[in-house]
Amino acid sequence: MNASPEFEVRSQKSEAACGARRALSSTSYTGLRTRDSRPSVRGSIVVISAPSGSGKTTLTRRLLEAFPRLRFSVSYTTRARRAGERHGRDYFFVTREVFEGMVRRREFVEWANVYGHLYGTARSQLRAAQEAGRDILLDIDVKGHAQVRRQLPEAVSVFVLPPSYRELERRLRDRHSDAPGEIRRRLETASREIKHWREYDYLVVNDHLDEAAEALAAIVRAVRFRRSSQTERTRKIVKTFGG
Ligand code: ADP
Ligand code: 5GP
């Protein structure tokens, strides 16, 4: 790990993503399957957003560790790769030209400019996960969430809030990853983002970490049992009753 505090936090984030993806690649889960080997339960899309410093990375890491069958959506971005990050695992790092080509070909289900860089979620990844009967987690900002919401109303969304502005400021400061000016910028962005809380299905206040992690796990567990995820499977059961 790099001696600079900035790199330290970045590597922690990257390790988190790395662990999560390792867990994903080691799983042999193929979804609840019918006899013809197609999954009979449709995978769900779970969106998680939070102001920077709220603890989203910490919580997401725990979630992916707890649910090895949950896929993580690897976004495309034009921002530079940070130390420890790997192309295809943390992000697909592409040039602006490549990104804009994907935008023109409508390959993104959503995309946004976040802190001056472009980030986008590939439509193909979501489709593949859904068809395989796997739930997929999208770590995207509020602008991206608004677009997902419009296009995929069946997506479930969670907004993670810090317990207060003061506590958010403390976490950003104590994380030692950003200069004071950058912290001010993130706090200003947070003040704008937090106003979007009404657009989300679930709200999780990350006050006590264990409780927040448990709340997120409960949401992800419940998502699988929604009627919309189980329509095909239930139809098959009902058919055995002659219905
Ligand atoms: P984000 O990904 O939302 O920017 P991080 O996961 O990096 O946030 O968390 C920001 C900082 O707050 C980190 O130093 C992390 O260890 C700390 N943190 C996360 N959750 C809590 C919590 N519930 N209580 C206190 N500190 C927390
Ligand atoms: P970072 O560069 O620190 O990894 O991420 C910065 C912000 O970009 C985070 O709030 C993260 O949720 C958001 N983000 C990451 N990927 C995407 C994406 O594909 N779409 C959108 N809209 N935001 C993203």
Structural class: alpha/beta
**What about the largest sheet?**
5 strands, parallel
Q: Count every beta strand, where a strand is a DSSP E run of 2 or more residues.
A: 9
> What is the helix fraction of residues, given as a range?
40-55%
Radius of gyration based on Cα positions: 19 Å
CATH architecture of the domain at 32-73 and 135-240: 3-Layer(aba) Sandwich
Question: What is the average per-residue confidence, as pLDDT, rounded to a whole number?
Answer: 85
The level-1 CATH class of the domain at 32-73 and 135-240: Alpha Beta
Shape: globular
Walk me through this protein's architecture.
It is globular, with a radius of gyration of 19 Å. The chain has helices at 5-26, 56-66, 96-104, 123-131, 142-151, 165-175, 180-193, 209-223, 227-239; strands spanning 45-49, 71-72, 76-77, 92-93, 108-114, 117-122, 136-139, 156-161, 202-205. The strands form two sheets. A five-stranded parallel beta sheet has the order 2-7-1-8-9, sandwiched between helices. Residues 1-36 have low confidence and may be disordered. It contains nine helices and nine strands. It is α/β, with parallel strands linked by helices. The chain has a domain at 32-73 and 135-240: P-loop containing nucleotide triphosphate hydrolases (Rossmann fold, 3-Layer(aba) Sandwich). A hairpin with a 2-residue loop joins β5 (108-114) and β6 (117-122). The structure holds adenosine-5'-diphosphate (ADP) and guanosine-5'-monophosphate (5GP). The site of adenosine-5'-diphosphate (ADP) has 14 residues, from α2 and α6.
